[in-house]
C-alpha cells in the first residue's frame, strides 16, 4: 500500500502538467448537451446530432453527439470530441484522423473523457487521457475521441462490450469526417489507437471495420494491453487490486445483454457494490473495491468466473472475445510482460489469433516498470502508437513478426 500511494504522489506532477495544457470549458457550456433528442433523428451511423464548442491547447476542439449502434444493433447517441491541431498539416495528402479509444475512465457520467479533456469532472487518472491525445496531436494528426455508449449520455456504460465499443470508435471517425468547418476530408486516412479498455476497443474496431465501416481508409491500429479474453480476466482480476474493473465489466455486460440478468446473481453486498460503482471514476473504484473477492458478493458463494463458464453467460463471454476476425489493416499489438491488470498472455494470444487468420501483425513487449506495469506502460504506449501510426500515414510498409512470438 505504501508503494501504491507513493506512486500516486509521484504521478501528481505529470497529471497536473497534463491538466494545465487543457483549456477549461466555458462556463456557458450547455448542461443539456449530453441529453439526446427523443426520438433520435434518422440518419446514418456517424451522422452528427449536435455539437458543443470546447477548448484544448493547440487544437480546435468541438464536442460532438453522433449516431452509433449498440451491441444489439439498435441506434443510439454517443458523445465524443473532435480535435484538429492548429498547426498546418505538413505531410502528403489529407490530414490523417486517429480514432482515440480511451482507457478506463469509470462509469459515472462525470468521468466522460469529452468532459475531463475540457477540464470538467474526472479524477487523478483522467489527465493521462490528455497525454495520449497530446502525443497524437503533436504529430499533426486530428483526433476523434469517443466517450463510448453510456458515458455522459443516459444509460450504463457498456464497458468492454466488443461490438458497442467498436461501433462507437468507428462512428466518431465518421462524425469527424462529416463535421463542417474542420478542414477534414471524408477520404482522410484513418488510424486507431487505444490502451487497456481502449486497446480492446481499438482491437474490436479494427477487426469489425471491414463489415461495419468498409469505406474508412484505415492504415493501421495500435492495440495496447487489450482485455481480449474476458474469461481469463474474470479469474485474474478477482480478489486483486483492480477487482473494481470486473464489477465494471459485469455492469457493462448486463446493459448490453439484459435478458441474461447477470446482476441478479449478486447478494445484497454485491448489489450495493454495483449500485455504488455506477457513480465512480477509475481511481475511486480501485480504492473502494481492491482485494474484494466475488465469492463474498454472489448469492451462493461461487466466484463470478464459475458463472461465466456456464450457460447463458458463456455465450456472452464468447461473443465478446477479441481475435476471432481478421483485421484488414496492419496492427501493432503491445503488452508489458509484468502487466498487473491484464495478463501478458492475453495480449500475446490476441496477436497469435490474428496471425493465424493471415493478418499483418507485429507483437512487441511494452517497456514498463517492475511495479504498476499496466498503468506505467501507458507512458511508453502513447509515443509508440503515435510513431507507428506516423509511419503508416507516411506510406512506410508495416513489417509483421507472426511466427516469431
From TrEMBL:
<keyword id="KW-0732">Signal</keyword>
<protein>
    <submittedName>
        <fullName>Lipase</fullName>
    </submittedName>
</protein>
<dbReference type="GO" id="GO:0016042">
    <property type="term" value="P:lipid catabolic process"/>
</dbReference>
<dbReference type="Pfam" id="PF03583">
    <property type="entry name" value="LIP"/>
</dbReference>
<feature type="signal peptide">
    <location>
        <begin position="1"/>
        <end position="29"/>
    </location>
</feature>
<dbReference type="InterPro" id="IPR005152">
    <property type="entry name" value="Lipase_secreted"/>
</dbReference>
<dbReference type="InterPro" id="IPR029058">
    <property type="entry name" value="AB_hydrolase_fold"/>
</dbReference>
<dbReference type="GO" id="GO:0004806">
    <property type="term" value="F:triacylglycerol lipase activity"/>
</dbReference>
